C-alpha cells in the first residue's frame, strides 16, 4: 500500500488491508488534522481493501467531520463500489460523481 499527496488530496494505491491499516490510519489522520476544506482520497490506484481498510476510511470520514472537513472519495474502482453499495456506505460517504447503482454488475 502507498499513499502520496498532501492535506488536500491523497492518492491511495495497492492493498488497503489489515497489514497496512495502521500506516494508512496515521497518514489519513495527519492529513485531516493538518488541512481545511475537503480532503479528496483518490482510490483509482487501489487494488483491493478488506473490512479493516474500509474501517480506516470510515474512521477518517468521522475524524474529518469532527474537524469540520469532508472526506471525498474519487475514482472508486467498480468492485469497491459494489462493497459500498452492499454495506450502504455509499449513502454516508461523499463520492465524487456518485455511484451509478443500476450500472454495477450483480454478483
Automatic annotation (TrEMBL):
CDD domains: STAS_anti-anti-sigma_factors (cd07043). InterPro entries: Anti-sigma_ant, MlaB-like_STAS, STAS_dom, STAS_dom_sf. It comes from the Bacteria. One of its GO terms (molecular function) is anti-sigma factor antagonist activity. Residues 10-107 form the STAS domain. It holds the Pfam family STAS_2. NCBIfam families: ant_ant_sig (TIGR00377). Belongs to the anti-sigma-factor antagonist family. This is Anti-sigma factor antagonist. It comes from Streptomyces resistomycificus. The lineage of its organism: Bacteria, Bacillati, Actinomycetota, Actinomycetes, Kitasatosporales.
Amino acid at each position: 500500500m502507498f499513499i502520496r499527496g498532501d492535506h488536500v488530496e491523497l492518492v491511495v494505491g495497492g492493498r488497503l488491508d489489515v497489514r497496512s491499516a495502521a500506516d494508512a490510519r496515521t497518514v489519513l489522520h495527519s492529513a485531516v488534522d493538518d488541512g481545511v476544506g475537503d480532503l479528496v482520497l483518490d482510490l483509482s490506484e487501489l487494488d483491493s481493501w478488506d473490512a479493516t481498510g474500509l474501517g480506516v476510511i470510515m474512521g477518517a470520514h468521522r475524524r474529518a467531520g469532527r474537524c469540520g472537513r469532508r472526506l471525498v472519495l474519487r475514482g472508486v474502482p467498480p468492485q469497491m463500489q459494489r462493497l459500498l453499495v452492499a454495506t450502504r456506505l455509499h449513502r454516508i460517504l461523499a463520492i465524487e460523481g456518485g455511484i451509478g447503482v443500476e450500472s454495477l454488475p450483480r454478483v
